[in-house]
Amino acid sequence: MVQELVVALVAAASVGVVYVAAAAKIVKQYERGVVLRLGRLRNDVRGPGFTMVLPGVERLRKVNMQIVTMPVPAQDGITRDNVTVRVDAVIYFKVVDAASAVVEVEDYRFAVCQMAQTSLRSIIGKSDLDDLLSNREKLNQGLELMIDSPAVGWGVQIDRVEIKDVSLPETMKRSMARQAEADRERRARVINADAELQASKKLAEAAKEMSSQPAALQLRLLQTVVAVAAEKNSTLVLPFPVELLRFLERAQQPVSTEQQAQLQPQPQQQQLQQQQLQQEQSPQPQPEQQKSQQPQQQPPVAPAPAPAPAPSGPARVTRSKPLARH
Questions:
Q1: What is the chain's percent helix, strand, coil content, to nearest 5?
Q2: CB-based contacts of 21: which residues, under 8 Å, 6+ apart?
Q3: First vs last Cα of the chain: how many Å apart?
Q4: CB-CB contact of 58 with 37 (8 Å)
Q5: In whole numbers, what is the pLDDT of the chain averaged over residues?
Q6: Which H helix or E strand runs over 76?
Q7: How far apart are CA 291 and CA 5, in angstroms?
Q8: What CA–CA distance (Å, rounded) separates 203 from 195?
Q9: DSSP string for residues in 90-136
Q10: Ramachandran region, residue 40 (left: φ > 0; alpha: ψ -120 to 50; beta: rest)
Q11: What is the DSSP letter of 57?
Q12: Mean of the pLDDT values across residues 140-159?
């Protein structure tokens, strides 16, 4: 009798231990427990710590409340400017309502992942290539809003969405490299032109200062000679005025025959020049002497009439009739 009682007590204790072990649940700090009693949601969400449920009647589902980092698979798409790209992203989200995450959606992780892929493709089709490469902050905000709108009903909050990488075709990479190289070359030319402009202004100011003092140019020449000679070179380069070189070239050019003929005076011109010199050296005569020395002008002689031409035919004699007298 006593043995049977002991066995019954031991059996009851073991059953109680098994029951307590089945009913006892521990919820971690970063988790929340959702209790379903006979398939119906209980209003109270179990917090972290030790909790008890009715085995076989109630079921406890733990929901992780930590921020989840989920990579979005790379998506192929065509941008608005007809460029084929491959874009991948990463999404950060967390559960804010454990009951909705359990009841409203079957698998909130899978749902968020699929929604992120769809939104990423939509963003690619609405954006240009330049926006994907340089204006990613605006695209991230738009992608976050597109994913967050349906996720609110699932008890999920989207913290952040980032586009990680944009893969371009090799031909597009070469084209962009050529464009960047041309842009760099343009900037280099602009900088060089600006430097030349500033240098020319400074040189003009220096020339203006040196023009007031001619000795300053000679001193500057001597400084240049000293700077070149300090390197102990066998060749010494000196600045030489270009105008002097042009003058020497003109002096060494042979004179052509036409130029010599133009330079040499003609004999008639020489005679006229000698006569003018003699007249200037001889004393000028008095007015009366000049009149006497002037030759008397003879009257012009009328030219003789030309003889009449002889008739070619036989000669005819004509007699004039006597005039009647009254």
A1: 50, 20, 30
A2: none
A3: 229
A4: yes
A5: 77
A6: strand 68-78
A7: 192
A8: 12
A9: EEEEEES-HHHHHHT-S-HHHHHHHHHHHHHHHHHHHS-HHHHHH-H
A10: beta
A11: T
A12: 88
**208, two tokens:** 């203006």
Q: Distance between CA 298 and CA 178 in Å, rounded?
A: 103
Say if residues 155 and 98 touch (Cβ distance below 8 Å): yes
- Distance of alpha carbon 108 from the chain centroid: 48
Flag whether the pTM goes above 0.85: no
Q: CB–CB of 81/126 below 8 Å?
A: no
Question: Which secondary-structure segment (H or E) carries 216?
Answer: helix 214-229
Strands 84-95, 68-78: parallel, antiparallel or unpaired by DSSP? antiparallel
Distance (Å, rounded) from C-alpha 57 to C-alpha 40? Answer: 10
| Token pair listed for 250 | 């003109």
**SS3 of residue 193 by DSSP:** helix
Q: What is the widest separation between alpha-carbon atoms in the chain?
A: 229
Contact 90, 113 (CB under 8 A): no
Q: Which pairs count as long-range contacts for 236-244, CB under 8 Å and 24+ apart, including other chains?
A: none
Give the DSSP H or E segment for 196.
helix 170-212
pLDDT interval class at 304 (50, 70, 90): very low
Number of Cβ within a 10 Å radius of residue 72 = 24
- Running DSSP on this structure, what letter comes out for residue 153? G
Three-state SS string over 159-179 comes to EEEEEEEEECCHHHHHHHHHH
* Backbone region of residue 38 per phi and psi (left: phi > 0; alpha: psi in -120 to 50; beta: other values): left
